[in-house]
Amino acid sequence: MKTTLAHQLADYGCALRFEDLSKEVVHEVKRRVIDSLGCALGAWKEEPFVMARRVAADFSAKHGSTIFGTDHKAPPDWAAFANGCGIRYFDFNDTYLSKEPAHPSDNISAALAVAESVGAGGREL
Questions:
Q1: Which helix (DSSP H) or strand (DSSP E) does residue 66 occupy?
Q2: Structure-derived torsion over alpha carbons of residues 55, 31, 35, 14, reported in degrees to the nearest 10
Q3: Phi, psi values for residue 103, rounded to 5°
Q4: Contact 31, 95 (CB under 8 A)
Q5: What is the distance between the alpha carbons of residues 95 and 34, in angstroms, rounded to a whole number?
Q6: Where are the alpha helices (DSSP H) in 1-125?
């Protein structure tokens, strides 16, 4: 059976431990998360982020994920959607400069939502 690239990446991710990460990697991940949260804060009053929060707030989950700036817990997918709208609204995610067009903040809202919903801490995130 041929192992696909997706399987190889999944195996790598599942086997990775916090202790395997360098201090530099941990520092840079923290920078990306802080940068993303700052972008969401800046977009707080912007109509698309307001609308996304309003839509996501229609859904509740006991073990869900927090919609930024509220005490409401929504299912992780809805929290990730709303929070991701805020993070990406201005496209100011500028602590990551690379040749690739993607920015890790596209995944940060989903990672935060899933981590919170399963009770994971920063090291597990």
A1: strand 65-66
A2: -20
A3: -125, 140
A4: yes
A5: 10
A6: 5-15, 23-42, 47-56, 76-88, 105-117
DSSP-derived letter for residue 64 is -
Give the position of tokens 């997706």. 6
Residue 74 is classified by DSSP as: E
pLDDT digits (tens, 9 = 90+) for 18-75: 999 999 999 989 998 998 999 999 999 999 999 999 999 999 999 999 999 999 999 9
Residue (of 120, 111, 92, 104) closest to 25 by Cα position: 104
pTM of the shown model: 0.86
* Amino acid (1-letter code) at residue 99: K
Query: Taking all residues of the chain, what is their mean pLDDT, rounded to a whole number?
Result: 91
In whole angstroms, what is the distance from residue 44 CA to residue 72 CA? 16
